[in-house]
Amino acid sequence: AIKGLRFSCADFLTNKAGFPTLSKGVQFLTSWLLQRLGGRLRILVQGPPAHFTTGSPTNNLGHTKCLPYLQYLQHLRKTKPEIRQSLDIEEARLEADHCDRLQRPLQPLRDHLDNNTYVVFEKDPVKYREYQKAISWALQDFAAAKQQQPMVVMVVGAGRGPLVIAVMNAYKALPVHQRPRQLSVWAVEKNPSAVIYLKSLFHQQKDDWQILPATVQVLHKDLRHLDSNHDLRGQKADLVVSELLGSFGDNELSPECLDPLLTETNVCHAGTISIPTNYTAHLAPACSSKLHQQVIEQALYPDEAEGGHGLSSEGSRVLGVQVAVETPYVVRPQLASQMGMTERCWTFTHPYVPPSSNKAISNEMNRTAIVEFEGKHVRESAMYGCGYRAPDDRIQKMVAPTGNNNSNNKKPSKPMDASASVANGGTTPTQVSPPDDDNEELNMPWLLTGFLGTFSSDLYIRKPSSSSASPEKVTISIEPDSFSDGMFSWFPLYFPLDKPLVVPESDSTVVRAQISRRMQHNRVWYEWSAVVQDKTTGNLLQASPIHNPRGRSYFVSSS
User: Fold this and answer.
1) Burial of residue 42 (number of CB atoms within 10 Å: 0-12, 13-18, 19+)
2) In angstroms, how far is the first alpha carbon of the chain from the final one?
3) What's the CA dihedral at 298, 252, 529, 448 to 10 degrees?
């Protein structure tokens, strides 16, 4: 792994004022490395100084006479948005301690979240901004359709109240004629410590909310056991708002919570709307010796199965290799490469109304997806970087293929769009032409160490005003091609392989992944496997075993 970047003073050019500067190409490389590696990257300037010779100003140059070079690098840090985003913004500081550190996914149905976890989630400005926008649209559409009827909103899994505040802010911001005549908000939360905070928060907001024709009430109960007559005073929810999504969309059991609530209990009716409306799981191949090493090290960690982490209990003192390699981990990847375009796995919709019926029914909880990743994997790894955040447009323009041999053309993507701008006469930031398709430097073998799972979600879909118009959507996403810039509530879910698979350099090679979501009794788990195949001859080159069969190593508890 790259640890540092060393500049010799002789590498610097001289600007018109006689001060050191770097060429455009070196500036680009420096900013790209800082984007990928953040604060890990150490930068060294090594003398002797090549500027400020006889006749040049020599005051305040520092003991080594290299101060102007360091000042120039600080100038780049202040003026390059991509560097500031990687080093100086609040998001980067919060992520710094999580880079390449594996975390077992939360079990929110079984375990109560601690206060620090809530605090971190609530700092995300993008997520709650988009939620408030979606809620505002829902309030407006309800008011337009129901006219003077009151509206009941139920926030389930309310935590410490950020979504309740979003509901009230959305209602307050709307003109009187565009919002429901009266609003009744129920905040449902099972965590006793969060309920105490909720009640305290609402007491503080009481004066601001009393002027509105709205009421807010806190209900300490598990959302799966709600009863309209007993808990909601006979009211039924017109809108259900939740933030039960996990890194892979459904891995924190949002379907198991929302489906019974919307289709089996008496707290909702046939027209109840859910925010989010749907969420889709995505998968992408990953190459990372760092993450593979971290997974193997997990085998030596204490077996905390009895502590409620959902790991299998074999009575051993440590996890062991089997459990370590069959557990998906939440991770903010940094020393990793996404080796291809993400592919969709499955989608959950709430409420789910099948095409052949007008009545909502439960989603099918067991899902299986077989996804293929083909094309020039090494080339695409330059586009997608570490697999977190949106692809770098500058890199896309530099490595986008110039010919028509790109085999990965199954769906439109940002890399294809970026190549079009170059073909139309655009230039890259470094004035470098895109390489040819058969460039050997972008065609080499690599190791498949696992898969990165992400999600995208439509929070609310507004019906089009005319038959020719497209529906408007409010979305959030950590899937790279549709990433919500500035959002940091979720990191990808890493599905490791027990042993890395070698992917040859041939363009005819395809990586195929099979991933399944399984539910039985009170347990939900994932099973996954991978094969490397020559699509021309059909020969199977390498294959992994099925990981986590029957949830033997990891599962999420719904009880």
Assistant:
1) exposed
2) 43
3) -60
Q: Are 263 and 360 in contact (CB under 8 A)?
A: yes
In the numeric block, the tokens 């020719």 are attached to 468
In this structure, what is the dihedral angle of CA atoms 149, 150, 154, 160, given to the nearest 10 degrees? 140
Distance of CA 353 to the CA centre of its chain: 27
Whole-number Cα distances in Å, 500 to 390, 396, 531, 543: 26, 27, 11, 10
Q: Element (H or E) spanning 146, and its range? A: helix 125-146
Q: How far apart are CA 415 and CA 183, in angstroms?
A: 45
Give 221's DSSP letter. S
Among the listed residues 332, 329, 449, 450, the one whose alpha carbon sits nearest the alpha carbon of residue 388: 332
What is the radius of gyration, based on Cα positions, of the chain?
26
Q: How do 556-557 and 540-543 pair as beta strands?
A: unpaired
H-helix or E-strand spanning residue 283 = strand 278-287
Q: Where are the alpha helices (DSSP H) in 40-108?
A: 67-79, 81-87, 90-96
Q: Which two tokens stand for residue 367?
A: 């899902």
Q: Which long-range contacts (CB under 8 A, 24 or more apart) does 80-89 make?
A: 80/27, 80/31, 82/31, 82/32, 82/34, 82/35, 83/31, 83/34, 83/35, 85/35, 86/34, 86/35, 86/38, 87/34, 87/38, 87/39
Is the C-alpha dihedral spanning 291, 292, 297, 299 positive or negative?
Answer: positive
* Cα 278 to Cα 53, 373, 426, 539, distances in angstroms: 65, 25, 37, 38
Residue written as token pair 């699509």: 535
pLDDT tens for the chain, residues 1 to 559: 678 888 888 888 888 888 888 888 888 888 888 877 777 788 888 877 877 654 455 556 666 678 888 888 888 888 888 777 777 666 777 777 778 899 988 888 888 888 888 988 888 889 999 999 999 999 999 999 987 799 999 999 999 999 999 999 999 999 999 999 999 999 999 999 999 999 998 888 888 888 899 999 999 999 988 988 888 888 999 999 999 999 999 999 999 999 989 988 899 998 999 999 999 999 999 999 999 999 999 988 876 654 434 444 444 457 889 999 999 999 999 889 999 899 999 999 999 888 777 777 778 899 999 999 986 777 778 778 888 888 877 776 766 654 444 444 444 333 333 333 323 333 333 444 444 555 555 668 899 999 999 999 999 999 887 766 788 999 999 999 999 988 988 999 999 999 999 999 888 899 999 999 999 988 999 999 999 999 999 899 999 999 999 999 999 988 7
Strands (E), 92-174: 151-156
CA dist list (Å): 383 to 32, 214, 341, 387, 434: 12, 49, 9, 9, 12
What is the DSSP secondary-structure string of 488-530? -S--PEEEEEEEEEEE-S-TTEEEEEEEEEEEETTEEEEEEEE
